Amino acid sequence: MSIVVIGVNHRTGPIDLLERVAVAPDELGKVITGLVSRANIREAAVLSTCNRTEVYAVAERFHGAYADIRDFFCELSGLQPDDLHPHLYSQHDDAAVAHLFEVASGLESAVLGESEILGQVRGAWEAAQAEGGARATLNLLFRHALETGKRARTETGIGKHTASVSHAAVDMAHERLGSLAGRRVLVVGAGEMGEGVALALVGAGATDIVVTNRTESRAHHLAQRVGGRVVPFSELGSALGEVDVLLTCTGSGSVIIHRDLVEAARRDVGTPLLVVDIAVPRDVAVDVESAGDVTLLNLDDLRDWAARGLAQRAVEATHVYAIVQEEVERFGLEVTARQAAPLVAQLHEKSESVRQGELDRFGNRLSSLDPAQRDAVDALTKGIVAKLLHHMSVRLKDDAGSPQGERNAAAVRDLFDLG
Asked: What's the mean pLDDT when you consider all of the chain?
């Protein structure tokens, strides 16, 4: 049994491919259920952000799981395997563990050390748990990943002066324009990313912030937090004609701002418009820039912009890699420990609970027995349980730390519901 990760990220695929493999939050449940129903996958979790879509799986056979997950990506993207293969990366066992720990630490982000990824890793784990995709092995893996990400940010300076993606988008706009003070800014989207953008705008000195969102109550809540105002989503077109900067980050899954909409809105406006689109899939059509006096920036531009600051945090990244290595080793030790003595103890405790429950259930029928007879029944049932568990317990201890031991331990935890 192996831990496997297969995915596409901002380093291996262009933004149009990231759009095609993005999984919307309301689709995660169905996706996870579909993955664990495949022949070679025991557990599965999906991490889908603006920079990556990755599948983490506990697999019976690596090559079989790779084929299952590759087919999943083909179905998701509508691409043939030969077209997708150059952009896929895969790791297994310790390398897969290290990859997730590096992701959680911000080492794999477009903006090195950014903090949003830690919450996204937690969200992926919670979604997998809710659908039964994360059980003994992935629960342990993701718990360690979150602990590693927290260590990276508390024990090193990897997150010092490091922007989240939403914060970086504002910084990039600030650099382009020289200043956001006095600029009229429209934020489209009031989710987690939109909130990050709006708060970063306040920090950058923006004072004229307009928020729009399909769910207007969320727009009002965010606007109140940043001292902004709200325009109904139905009035997006007219709002575009009144601003200098547009920052958009919805989870709509398709283009919501087309060239015709921008052309109509800006027809009689004599000032330029800067558009920063950090949504995946993109909110803004690629031909909007040809509408006239419009500059369009997206995640590819953000990645290039963020790369300029990479050298400044390279030393801290080295320290984080050392933490990741320590945590990979600690994870391996805990996996081995969980396979043997604690698991055997849990198994015996569960069996003893069942035995006692059955004796209690038959209490009335056993009430006529004298103390010696009741002791004999007690000893008999204990003996049966002990004999049934003996060989299993010995095998778990003997195979601990080996691939066979991992398979046995996971099977026992799942079959006996030991968590």
From this structure: 90
- Alpha carbons 268 and 242: distance in angstroms, whole number: 10
Burial label for 154, CB within 10 Å (0-12, 13-18, 19+), is exposed
Going edge to edge, which strands form the sheet with 208-212?
A: 229-230, 208-212, 184-188, 245-248, 273-277, 294-297
Please give the radius of gyration of the chain, using alpha carbons only, rounded to the nearest integer. Answer: 27
Tokens 């400044």, residue? 312
Please tell me whether the peptide bond between 232 and the residue prior to it is cis, using omega within 30 degrees of 0: no
- Write out the H or E segment, with its range, that includes residue 20: helix 15-21
> pTM for this one?
0.71
- Number of other CB atoms surrounding residue 21 within 10 Å: 26
Q: Is 346 helix (H, G, I), strand (E, B) or coil?
A: helix
Which positions are annotated as active-site residues? 50
CA–CA separation, 296 vs 282, rounded Å? 12
CB atoms within 10 A of CB 327: 22
Sign of CA dihedral 307, 309, 311, 317: negative
Q: Cα separation of 38 and 305, whole Å? A: 40
Could you write out the DSSP letters of every residue in 159-220? TTTPPPHHHHHHHHHHHHHS--TT-EEEEE--SHHHHHHHHHHHHTT--EEEEE-SSHHHHH
On whether the CB atoms of residues 172 and 276 are closer than 8 A, the answer is yes
- Residue 72's alpha-carbon distances to 9, 38, 289, 326, in angstroms, are 16, 10, 34, 33
pLDDT per residue as tens digits for the range 118-161 = 999 999 999 999 999 999 899 999 999 999 999 999 999 888 76
Give all domains of the chain, ordered by start, each with its CATH number. 2-161 (3.30.460.30), 165-307 (3.40.50.720), 340-410 (no CATH)
Is 215 a residue whose pLDDT tops 70? yes
Counted residue by residue, the chain has a size of: 419
Residue 135 CB partners (closer than 8 Å, separation 6+) = 42, 43, 58, 410, 413, 414
CA distances to 134, 141, 256, 417 from 396, rounded to whole Å, are: 22, 20, 56, 16
Contact between 103 and 120 (Cβ < 8 Å): no
- Residue 300: burial class (beta carbons within 10 Å; 0-12, 13-18, 19+): middle
β strands within 349-408, DSSP E? none
